[in-house]
Amino acid sequence: MRTVTRLSRWLCIPVLLPLWPAAGQKPGELYVSPLKNFSIAVPKFAFGTRVQKSNNRDGGLVVFIGGFGDLERIDYARLTGGALAGQDSAARLAAYGNALSGVAQANRAEVLDREPLSVGGEAALYALVRFPEASQAIEGGTGKRMDSFRGLLLLARGEFLYTLAVEVGGIFGASLTREQQVESGERAVQRFFGEITFQGSPIPVVRDTARAALARAGQVVFSSTRDGNYEIYVANADGSGPSRLTNHPAEDRFPAWSPDGTRIAFVSDRDGNPEIYVMNADGSYPNRLTSDSALDGLPAWLPDGRRIVFVRRRADGAQLYLMNADGSNLVQLTHGPAVHFMPAVSPDGTKIAFTSNLDGAFGIYVANADGSNPVRLTQGMDGDPVWSPDGTRIAFESGREDGTSDVYLMNADGSNRVQLTRGSTGNLLPAWSPDGARIAFQTNRDGDWEVYVMNADGTGLVNLSVSRGPDVEPDWRPKK
5: Cβ–Cβ under 8 A, 6 or more apart, which residues? Predict the structure, then answer.
């Protein structure tokens, strides 16, 4: 904790240290810190660039003046005794969060949003912060300075903790939406962080290419308690631009995209009992499809977009049902005392994969779309099957190794099982990207349930979550 307090003091230097112009630094020239711990080309701002700096043996700062929406300053503080060396991402994020709180308290600032990131494979923390009356601009006719909105990126490299700051939207930051402020600041700090050269760092810092690639990978819908209770949200596949779709005191859970990406089926108890609902992709016009004293949940669309399979649970078990997308023409697909749940329909609509104890022990089964001819694919603590877009593979979760759930992959006939995630945490509810190249899933590896994305071979992990509350039950939006 002594280290955190010390870091917090260093990060407060916007109000504690005077600045003096640095001689001889021109745009495009290389700025090298006096401690030789990093270097960066001086930005070429449209209105000219002025460099100010302050340093001592334990750290310092450099300020680049002249740009709006671009790199404003770099603060760096020496870590005592390798404070974060060997720490996992959860410990690093906790330390960054404490340092961020120190900045906010010392400057009477407000942290509006924060997001854990991965930069060059290392945990980082991005935050949008409002500094009251810190802008040089004067509010019209008031003589009062405007608030300044800054994006901050915190990350430890080698012996130092670095904080990059950008002016988000310049003097016009207040007119941007919260999502625009978060996105523009995050893009700027990540871009400039990728341009810094660090000396003595065992891993070179590079642009977060895994997250950047996800910016073109569509959208993910998920459930979250970030606003107090479970609601349904949608965000870009890189975690940016989250937007709440439902707003109800009841729980809204388990969203599932329609095949054309225009509607979302979900589960809600807003009418007193868990039922299946459908709404438009923007959250408008929620419509209840089921009305039964049983518990209805876990909807999955058929590829034609006209029908939905779901689970109806009663005291004597759980069965799969099929209905039209308007709730009509209800048909029971499975029968008997066994439990059937977590249905997933094959891309060609001819098969349904599901979890069941049909033969006495739980495992994954595949049956015809009408529920006939069920065939066991796995046996054990396996569940949550989901078909790849081309129908050749099935991702699923299993606790077969040590009782802890991990994401696995197998061929559609149950052969060639491969473990994709590992660790002492839960990894659940896989969801394929439309191109079959990636898998989203929920995990508590960082101490809270969050949505991650990985390549289909288990590499390239990226944390998409942007809140301190649980983010769970992801589903990738199909391409139209």
Answer: 102
Q: How far is CA 21 from CA 17, 96, 157, 161, in A?
A: 13, 29, 27, 24
Using DSSP's 3-state secondary structure scheme, residue 244 falls into strand
- Spatial contact of 58 and 157, defined as CB atoms under 8 Å apart: no
Q: For 11, phi and psi rounded to 5 degrees?
A: -70, -10
Q: What is the mean pLDDT of residues 31-49?
A: 73
Tell me the helices (H) and strands (E) count for the chain, helix number first: 5, 35
Cα separation, 219 vs 75, in Å, equals 34
* This model's pTM is above 0.90: no
- The residue among 395, 452, 389, 394 whose CA lies nearest residue 423 is 452
Give me the residues paired with residue 409 across strands. Answer: 395, 418
* Residue 380, both tokens: 């054990």
Could you give the CA distance from residue 1 to residue 266 in angstroms, rounded to a whole number? 44
Token duo for residue 215: 């910016």
The reported pLDDT for the residue numbered 175 is 58
Residue 199 is encoded by which pair of tokens?
A: 């000396």
Give Cα 206 distance to the centre of its chain.
Answer: 20
Q: Name the DSSP class of 170.
A: G
